[in-house]
């Protein structure tokens, strides 16, 4: 569980760095990569926390 939380934090950091590169260079590939990483990270995080909530309820 701790490993998954660190992975989510690391991926959010990667997305943030990618957006910073986009702001610095103006290249669209960094923004596109940042959105893809952010989208999948948030989906994985919501799934992870949904499983935790389901375990508490059930």
Automatic annotation (TrEMBL):
Q: Is Membrane one of the keywords?
A: yes
Keyword terms, alphabetized: Membrane, Transmembrane, Transmembrane helix
Tree of life domain: Bacteria
Residues passing through the membrane, by range: 33-54
Mind telling me what this protein is named? Uncharacterized protein
The taxonomic lineage of its organism, from the top, reads: Bacteria, Pseudomonadati, Pseudomonadota, Betaproteobacteria, Burkholderiales
């Amino acid at each position: 569980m701790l490993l998954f939380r660190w992975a989510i934090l690391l991926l959010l950091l990667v997305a943030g760095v990618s957006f910073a590169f986009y702001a610095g260079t103006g290249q669209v590939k960094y923004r596109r990569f940042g959105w893809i990483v952010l989208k999948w990270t948030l989906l994985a995080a919501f799934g992870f926390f949904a499983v935790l909530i389901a375990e508490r309820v059930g």
